[in-house]
Amino acid sequence: MAATLNIPIDRSSPVPLYHQVVQGIEAMIRGGQLEPGSKLENEIELAARLNLSRPTMRKAMDELVRAGLLVRKRGVGTQVVASQVRRHLELSSLFDDLARGGKRPSTRVLTFSHGPADAEVAETLQLPAGVGVYHFTRLRSVEGKPLALMENWVRDDVAELTEGGLREQGMYQILRDGGVNFRLANQRIGAAVADEYQAGLLEVAPGSALVTMERTAVDDTGRSVETGRHVYRADSYSFEMTLVQR
Question: What is the model's pTM?
C-alpha cells in the first residue's frame, strides 16, 4: 500500500514549490514516518493530492532520487531507499562510529595470519628489520546486513591482536587499549564495481557500485601503524566532509 503524504505547501513562501516537497519528504524520511522500503503514490496522484503541477512534482522526485533518498523501480514504483550509514572523515574506526550512532555492528573474521610482511606492505609501513604484521580480512555488518569488506595489515610490535578480539571490538580501539596514540592518517576514497567474491559477501549483484577506501595511520611517534583497503556497499554507505576556504 502506498504511503500517504500530507505535506504543507505555502504558496506565499520564497522557497520554490518543488523544494518544499523535497524538504517535506526528506523530513518524513529522517523522522521515521517514511520507513525504508515504503512505496509512494505515483507522481500524478501526488501532484493532485498536493494541488501541484505534474512537472513540479516530477522535479521534486528527480531531486530526491539524485540525493539517494528515493529509488524508482520498474513495475514497483517509487520507494524510500534503505537508510545509509553516513560517516564523517576522521581518524576513527567503523565499528566505533556505528556503535556511537546507535547501530549494532557485528564482525566476521574471514582470514587471520601473523608473519613477515610482503615488500609492498613493508614499504608502506616502513617496517624495521624483524618486525612482522598481522594480516586479516573482516566482514562488517549492521543489523545483520553486510556493509563493508575490510583488509588490514598491522605491525606486530605495537599491540597483540587476536582473531577473537577482532570479532568483539574495533581494530582502532584494540590498538588504543594497547597504548597506540594515533596522530594522523593518509586516506584515499574512490569507487569500484563489485567482483564475484565481493558481491557474494556483501550480498549485492556483481557489478554493483562500491565505495572504496585506502588508509595508512600514523601514531604520535611517527610510526606507520596500520594500512588497509576497505570496500563498502554504495547503497548503504557514504563519507561526509567539511570543506574550508583557504
Answer: 0.62
